[in-house]
Amino acid sequence: MVRQLVELKARLTWNGIRNDVQRRIGFPVAMLLLTWVAIWLAGKHLAVANELATSNGAAFNSYMGWAALFFFLGWVTLPVIIFPLDENLDPQQLAVLPISGNQMVQGLTAASLVAPATIVPVVLLGANAAVLGAGWWMILPASLIYIGLLMVGAQLFSAFVSAILRTRRGRDIATFMILGLAAGSFFVYRSVATTVSSIGMEQAALNHTIMDWAVLVPPVAAQRAITEAAAGSVLSALFFLTVSTGWLLGFAYVWRRLLGWMLTTPAEGSRPAARARRHGMASGAWGVIPTLARKELRFYVRDPRQRLVWTGTVIFVGLAIAGTIMGATGVFDLRERAWAPLAAPILVLFVGLPIALNLFGWERNAASYLFVLPPKPHQLLIGKNIAVAIGLTIETFILAIGLAWFTGQWSWIWMVIPLMVAAVGCQLAVGNFVSVITPLRLPREGTDVFAQSTEQGCLAIVSQTVSFFAIGLLLVPPASLMVLTVDFGQVIAPWFTALVTVAYGLILYLLSLLVSSRLLNRRLPEVMAWVQIV
Amino acid sequence: MAVDNVDLAIQPGEFYGLLGQNGAGKTTTIKTIVGLLRPNAGTVGIGEFNTWKSPTEVKARIGVLPEEFNLYERLTGAELLDFTAAMHGLTRSEAATRRDELLELLDLTTSGAKLIGDYSRGMRKKVALGAAIIHRPPVLFLDEPFEGVDAVSGRLIRNLLQQAASGGTTIVFSSHEMHLVGKLCTRVGIMVEGRLIIEETPDGLCERTGMDNIEDAFIAAVGGDPNDESSWYAS
Lengths: 534, 235
Hints:
The structure holds two protein chains of two kinds.
Chain A: H1 2-19, H2 21-55, H3 57-81, H4 91-94, H5 101-112, H6 119-131, H7 136-165, H8 168-207, H9 218-230, H10 234-264, H11 274-279, H12 288-302, H13 304-327, H14 343-356, H15 367-370, H16 377-407, H17 416-437, H18 454-474, H19 476-486, H20 494-531
Helix pairs in contact in A: 1-2, 1-5, 2-3, 2-6, 2-18, 3-7, 3-8, 3-9, 5-7, 5-10, 6-7, 7-8, 7-9, 7-10, 8-13, 9-10, 12-13, 12-16, 13-14, 14-16, 14-17, 16-17, 16-20, 17-18, 17-20, 19-20
Chain B: E1 15-20, H1 26-34, E2 45-46, E3 49-50, H2 55-60, E4 62-65, H3 77-87, H4 92-105, H5 121-133, E5 139-143, H6 151-166, E6 170-174, H7 178-184, E7 187-192, E8 195-200, H8 202-209, H9 214-221
Parallel strand pairs in B: 1-6, 1-7, 4-5, 5-6
Antiparallel strand pairs in B: 2-3, 7-8
């Protein structure tokens, strides 16, 4: 059965590449990108490990434990926090087949290895083996257990979050959970970076010996089995191999139970707000564009993924700023900068990006419903743009007021408004264009809300990075005007800067709207075909 | 090619049944007419309007019940009807009145405040039908309107369609429920492998194929044997 599921995954991957242009482009891009990441990480790992191995054995061992732990944590959580690395088999489709729970878990684990992302742990484990060659007899079994922990751990974590999202209360707290993870990762990173930069890697590894906790930390146990073998302690190596195997079986057992529960328990339905239940959409502004905008705003709140985009990221950005300010050494002191609140419109650009750049992707299959309705393309774009602009405006104000309060710089707070118009205008201008030219298909919401193909993930990142730079470039003129006005003693009159900045944003937006709506008129069936989940 | 060289003209007020086996091209034909699929060649339109030159005018005159329920799962039934009414330019009061009437007519009054994602298949079909007719379009396209609905809902949908047809609405629908095709349609078109091979009245089709009921007539028309009773289990 395991073999059949592996073959199924391979067949699905191959058919996807053969029949889908997006995947034909995305697959090689994904492979190249991931290979580069793998080699870069392996190079760094080898360099540090070799240096420590020659200078201090204890520090070397400690570092190897930390490396195993950090890679494991990144592998398990990144697909949920940032973007999924792999498209997994859907257990829902396998549930009607005569497969036992154990077979399903084994099959899904083995099948998850058939993915471009597998190149990363394989290359890293190769590098690991190169520095721990003395423990050669333990390298293969412990590495296999480690890979098993990665695969099962990632699926268990993803299934755990998906299970939480199936309950009404869980959906409410999921945002904060993901946020907590993101913020936690950020602070861990800051803490490690600060410690290493201040006392050096060797001392940091000696001061925090994770290997002492190996019994409790599964990936570290697998690594310790190899380091003990390399040190010649056969019994100890076998002990830690047994411990890590036990952890792997434990993870698999919990995952099996969780899958069993998810496959047999229906998801709890959401309850719209009382006002929406009473009045539908008949209260508030009426007409094609306002109703479209209100539909979008309701989805921002009701769709857990969109809610994550709007809430998680802005708080994360806020935490990042706070962390930078608090932990800054040698970085300019933000509190002395009069323009500090003006950073808000620029920072907020990060927040709306996944929605502004993929306006129709979020429609998913309902795009075919929307596109048989009579609104003109420019009305569709304006309706969606208004909703994005409202989201960005609210977040800009929250962030600007927060920054002004934190820095005590209130004198230029009013300038946030014209700069925000320019920033939102630029983002929507690029967003409309990209949404029509390269719409992205979002994953199906099912057992695993984070399932998404690697190629889509990579294309999403490439498309969003390029677009972000384009938005940045477009913002250079208004930002320069702002700097000249605010930071260079009002070389240009503030009213003139405000006026030009607003006009700049509006003109760019209107130009893009003109081009994008014409393009959408011509490409409607293509946009629908790209975003629909088959 | 999913659909090839189809020449189809439906007159105002007709109740037209588009028939064919699975994969014959019925859904593709409907999607092409309503503007969701671009034809490689030829023209499609509603009345004087070409679907690809005047898409807004065409869409304003049609109501569509798609085969797949690609509805907004995170809107309530009432919200979907409001949303659709607004998109068709109805006033707020008109929309609210028609929404309440349709929810009652379709037996969805109590579930109108629930999200569509929580609806059963039959409820989705009914709310999708409500959304397709809320603006009282002169032309209705219905892809498998009776598939997956219970007998009570099926009767309700049938009555609604008969009312619409008697009021002069042109209805184009695809269905595998042959007894309903025989009862409702004034004319049927049969598609085989993307081609429209026969256009007849239901009685005319029976006569032409020498069969005494529409189901056998359809099977005979697509090249099947209405008397075939071969059994895989028996072998």
